[in-house]
Amino acid sequence: MTFDEWIQIGVDNKWCGAPVCSTHDGTPISEAEEAEWEEGADPCHHIVRLYESEDVADAVNAHFTPYKWRSPLVS
User: Fold this and answer.
1) Separation in Å, CA 72 to CA 20, 44, 68
2) pLDDT (tens digit, 9 = 90+) per residue, 18-41?
3) What is the 3-state secondary structure (H, E, C) of the chain?
4) Model pTM greater than 0.90?
5) Domain residue spans in the chain?
6) How far is Cα 42 from Cα 63, in angstroms, rounded to an integer?
7) Half-sphere exposure of 14 (CA within 13 A, CB side)
8) Which residue in 12, 17, 20, 46 has the fewest CB atoms around it within 10 Å?
């Protein structure tokens, strides 16, 4: 199974959204979540970053501090 096939299963089953660029596209949120944010609430949106190579994954894993204290999955 390719990554594209795997992610399509998630999208089709509404387990996740399609991959987008957080930098250029923003975080995918609903209108209600946006209103909540605008009213001063702090809704949490869980994001899974997709890496274009193992080198990029290693570089991000080594640099991104929350991975060190939040996720036992990243080594």
Assistant:
1) 25, 19, 8
2) 999 999 999 999 999 999 999 999
3) CCHHHHHHHHHHCCCCCCCCCHHHHCCCCCHHHHHHHHCCCCCCCCCCCCCCCHHHHHHHHHHCHHHHHHCCCCC
4) no
5) 19-70
6) 25
7) 0
8) 46
